[in-house]
Specification:
This protein is mostly helical. It has 18 helices and no strands.
């Protein structure tokens, strides 16, 4: 990629953040609309789980393929294709005549979304090459998550109450169009010097693994659990034998990279489950409309928005350890208020839980991304960023699947049952545990020895990538 002026670099960052905004805003706004969709389609809790997980599942399955493809054929080309497909999927979702059609069209959206976030992060990584500038750019990137979390419930609530839940998908269209035009005008094309070749077997195994695991959890089907185990075994056997695998297992020799993967899964599992439980509680148990439910969750969104850029600056100046420790502590503490003290039954505790959890989630995103890509060779930035993005989507998929299944087992098909609080408590304990994993993984994988493994891994990767 040619050297760009500061103004053009900032424009490239803005365009990449626009893609993240529509992908993240779509999910957070849709959470507020779940009860409305459930009533229109007469859906069960598992039906609502699939509305969320159909998107995150397909996204997780294709992110690594999209990242490596972009490194090979051109990042701008894949990015613009993703914008077009995502907009088309959004339009189809707004016209869905049934729950089954909506789930299918959400998968179309995800195909486009898989070409956006990891590719955008690869573009950012190759645009901001100086470590401190990269950390600040990633901090801005993380702040966009806060913006989407803050705006999502409010935008979703306003649209659901004034127009209907289908309007949530219309918001994506003008943003995607603007991002497309700006990309064609300002974002230069770039490729990896030695991109990886396609790995169709690995891609199929990843899709089978994630799909069967999610189905096994949501539908409690042991047969699909067995299929997931077999797919995992096949993946672990197949990938090391390829010279250019879909998932480069050598990356995991780096303790920070492995830690970032575990943290991403845990943090986004906590977020997915937390939002799922609270959306259903506020609307189906408290009887709030979508807009008021969004306003109730605004403290969480606001703290995420405030803390995300602070985390980026802190990561750039002091490294990822401190923000990860603070993030894990805050996420666990926020969920603990619900798990141990039934925070949803008291407004002060409820809002306190939202504030504390929002602080934790706002702090966690920047160090995940920075750690995942900083120790990897720039030539494989697309693949490394895609693994981090995949971990986020896997976490959100599993969080909704596990916690939704726990809730359905306790409250039955109708989450407005009188015992909702008792039924949701095990789910909040799961969220608390996820926060503790973030804390422990952050403590264990950001020390001096961990940085040493990252340096050794980067050197080995660079040596092994040199052609004989």
């Amino acid at each position: 990629m040619p050297e760009l002026t500061r103004r053009r670099r900032l424009t490239v960052l803005a365009v990449c953040c626009m893609s993240l905004l529509i992908v993240s805003l779509d999910n957070t706004a849709l959470n507020v609309a779940l009860p409305s969709m459930r009533r229109e389609f007469d859906a069960t809790v598992s039906g609502m789980q699939w509305t969320i997980d159909a998107y995150t599942l397909v996204l997780a399955s294709l992110l690594m393929l999209a990242g490596s493809t972009a490194d090979r054929i051109g990042r701008r080309r894949v990015f613009t294709t993703g914008l077009v497909v995502f907009a088309l999927g959004s339009l189809l979702c707004s016209l869905a005549p049934s729950l089954e059609a909506l789930v299918a069209f959400r998968a179309v959206q995800a195909v486009g979304g898989s070409m956006l976030n990891p590719v955008a992060m690869s573009i950012i990584t190759n645009t901001f090459t100086e470590p401190a500038a990269r950390a600040r750019a990633i901090g801005v990137w993380g702040a966009v998550v806060g913006v989407s979390l803050a705006a999502g419930p409010l935008v979703g609530g306003v649209l659901v109450e004034s127009v209907g839940w289908r309007a949530i998908f219309w918001v994506n269209l003008p943003v995607a169009l603007a991002a497309l035009l700006l990309t064609l005008r300002y974002v230069p094309e770039s490729r990896a010097p030695r991109p990886r070749r396609p790995d169709p077997v690995g891609q199929v195994l990843v899709a089978v693994l994630l799909g069967s695991l999610t189905y096994a959890i949501i539908e409690t089907d042991p047969l699909f659990a067995g299929i997931a185990v077999l797919a995992l075994a096949g993946l672990l056997r197949h990938e090391p034998r390829r010279r250019e695998p879909l998932i480069d297992l050598r990356f995991f020799r780096s303790a920070p990279f492995s830690g970032a993967t575990v943290i991403a899964v845990s943090a986004f599992a906590a977020l997915g489950g937390f939002l799922f439980l609270n959306t259903l509680y506020l609307q189906d148990v408290r009887g709030l409309d979508a807009l008021r439910a969004g306003l109730f969750m605004l403290p969480m969104a606001g703290m995420t928005f405030v803390c995300a850029p602070l985390s980026g600056r802190l990561t750039g100046s002091r490294g990822p350890r401190l923000p990860l420790l603070l993030a894990g502590t805050a996420m666990a503490a926020g969920a603990l208020l619900f798990a141990a003290f039934a925070a949803e039954t008291d407004d002060v505790l409820l809002l306190s839980g939202y504030v504390v959890f929002g602080i934790g989630f706002g702090l966690v995103n920047a160090p995940i991304t920075n750690t995942a890509v900083s120790g990897m060779p720039r030539a494989q930035a697309g693949v490394a960023a895609a693994v981090a993005s995949t971990s986020r989507q896997i976490g959100q998929t599993l969080g909704v699947a596990v916690i939704g299944t726990v809730l359905a087992a306790g409250a039955g098909a109708e989450p407005a049952a009188a015992d909702f609080t008792a039924a949701a408590r095990p789910g909040y304990w799961v969220v608390t545990g996820c926060g503790l994993v973030v804390l422990l993984a952050g403590a264990l994988t950001t020390g001096g020895w961990a940085r040493g493994t990252a340096e050794r891994t980067a050197r080995r990767l660079e040596v092994e990538e040199v052609p004989a």
